[in-house]
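Same chain as my last thread, 278 residues:
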Amino acid sequence: MLEHGVPFRLNSLVRRLVAPNPGVMTGAGTNTYLLGNEQVAVLDPGPAIPAHIDAILAAAGGRIRWIVCTHTHPDHSPAWQAVAEASGAEVIGALPADDMFQDDTFAPHRELRHDDLLETPEFTLRAVHTPGHVSNHFCFLLEQEQMLFAGDHIMNGSTVVIVPPSGDMKAYIESLQLLLRYPLKFIAPGHGEVLEDSRAVVAWLVNHRLQREAKVIRGLQQLGRSSVDELVVVVYDDVETSLHKMAKLSLAAHLIKLRQENRALQHPDDERWELLQP
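reply #2:
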């Protein structure tokens, strides 16, 4: 149940709290996860909404020892400060990325590196660096449950918008492929319900992005030298036009990936794109 402010137990180690920040980009709201029972890690404390902060502190009952953030977008990390001040918890995460949608207040006590472990008497949490949605994004694998806390790398009910320059489509697809190296059973996303059959979910997402890339290539073949505004109508013809403003961000990320791979170029004089001949 995605009910605001009410702890929902997912398994013996994990409870979920949904922040009261519903919207087009956040779904029912941002998921905050409480890991552990005797000593609690708060994963993605969410927006700095007083009612949500109070719900976190009440659910944890004075047992918060760690605050862990997948990334520093404003719907995922800002409550860290109030929770840390109330609990004295160690704050773990990556420094804010260099883009326009960041929680610049975030100041971790421990900066993350790929495959870092948080080991407690109850559980082991492994950090997996997954750039793509944003460069400082990490997923976290709860090894005892084979549950991946995916932040905004994977969402339930929609695909993730990739916003250049910090968002990187090539890195995003490679980060999805990286997850297939880990033993996954469940995906606990930053928004929406838990996903099962995790490997199939990841494989579908990789295929979906590559199919969209193929549409970008066909669009460039059809239109020739063209702008993002012209391409979005062709490449995202299966998406409501009201969402094309956001779709143009992911389209730009696809085009940048093609440029990185020497398959497309952008003309500096008019910023239009065209395919390079193989």
